[in-house]
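Materials and Methods. Structural model of GDT1 family protein. The 255-residue sequence of GDT1 family protein from Achromobacter aloeverae was retrieved and submitted for structure prediction as follows.
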Amino acid sequence: MHFISWSVAAPAVASAFLASVVEVVEAFTIILVVATLRGWRAAILGTVAALGVLAVLVLALGPVFDQLPLHILQLVIGVLLLLFGLGWLRKAVLRSAGVIPMHDEDAIFATARAQLSAEALRQQQRSQDWLAGLAVFKAVLLEGLEVAFIILAVGAGRGLLFPAALGALGACAAVLIVGAIAHKPLSRVPENKLKFAVGVMLSSFGVFWTGEGLGVAWPGADLALLVFAAVFLATGLATARFVRNAMARSKQCVS
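The predicted structure was written out as tokens:
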């Protein structure tokens, strides 16, 4: 029986929690638009339906992943996590450097509200609740698919599926409760910093599990994850600073 140490369990649960916070904040903007225009009934029904589909996906695929040989599972998921994590880290670095704009939940809220209002005007009154619920379902499902993948990736094969799922559900509950009480887009959530952290964690897991899948014996065993995380964090921060300074020098030369 493989012993699960806290050095692996804690980052896995934290990755699921932080990734869920990021995705749920984005989905909540659409949920709030629908709740504002059509009431909370349509918003809640759409959210519950999407969460049900995601739960079925995780529960169905989790046991399948657990049946695969551990080294194959580690290699496949390690490569996918590395690609996934580097994608998050790349966008976080570019946003931190000012190359691409930060997410503006207030602007997204206004745009989504205008689009949904215009669409509703083209529909019959009896279909507006269905349209609003479908908009929430699509938003939660699309954002949740990334979370479901992360839960499966960090949880399957190591007995962490349930803890990772609990971390994700905890994040969903926290964001929805705070958002419902505040009744406004959660624009103050440090989304890019969270994405930076998740990118670092997923990339670290990716390197660690890819190596294990290839039979690499990491010095320090599970503690090597901390070293990888420090390397990715330092590299990401240094890259963001370098790009930001390069852009500043470029603007000075142009002016």
